[in-house]
């Protein structure tokens, strides 16, 4: 999931969700709650807007949040793939930023890092029985 719409701040890490951003995150979380899918845990970027997004989703879906330093906007999707290979947590939700969410999604689905665009608050559901590049199938999208 990409974080909700954020306002401006002189420090990118400190940008906060707008009222519209909070509302769209809550709406997407409600749609996920209606689906048969539930994460066991949420991995969140340490940036403030991602932490706010993860907190809203966590409250709606009743699951814990773990902050991860390796899913910030310009991090390498390969590092996240390594962490996915190491974790036993499944299903898992990631709350991060563009361009990472786009490049990670294409790495997992298509095996390359070109990257697809994500709207703010957009979430996708990937089914990945085996963790690896090109091993995931896009099963659903949740749009604001």
From TrEMBL:
<dbReference type="InterPro" id="IPR029033">
    <property type="entry name" value="His_PPase_superfam"/>
</dbReference>
<protein>
    <submittedName>
        <fullName>Phosphohistidine phosphatase</fullName>
        <ecNumber>3.1.3.-</ecNumber>
    </submittedName>
</protein>
<dbReference type="GO" id="GO:0016787">
    <property type="term" value="F:hydrolase activity"/>
</dbReference>
<keyword id="KW-0378">Hydrolase</keyword>
<dbReference type="InterPro" id="IPR013078">
    <property type="entry name" value="His_Pase_superF_clade-1"/>
</dbReference>
<dbReference type="Pfam" id="PF00300">
    <property type="entry name" value="His_Phos_1"/>
</dbReference>
């Amino acid at each position: 999931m990409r974080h909700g719409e954020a306002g401006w701040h002189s420090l990118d890490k400190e940008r906060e969700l707008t009222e519209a951003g909070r509302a769209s995150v809550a709406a997407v979380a409600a749609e996920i709650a209606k689906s048969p899918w539930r994460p066991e845990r949420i991995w969140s970027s340490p940036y403030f807007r991602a932490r706010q997004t993860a907190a809203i989703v966590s409250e709606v879906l009743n699951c814990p949040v773990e902050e991860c330093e390796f899913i910030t906007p310009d991090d390498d999707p390969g590092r996240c793939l390594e962490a996915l290979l190491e974790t036993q947590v499944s299903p898992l939700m990631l709350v991060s930023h563009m361009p990472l969410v786009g490049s990670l999604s294409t790495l997992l689905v298509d095996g390359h890092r070109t990257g697809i665009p994500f709207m703010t608050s957009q979430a996708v559901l990937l089914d990945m029985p085996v963790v690896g590049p090109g091993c995931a199938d896009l099963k659903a999208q949740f749009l604001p």
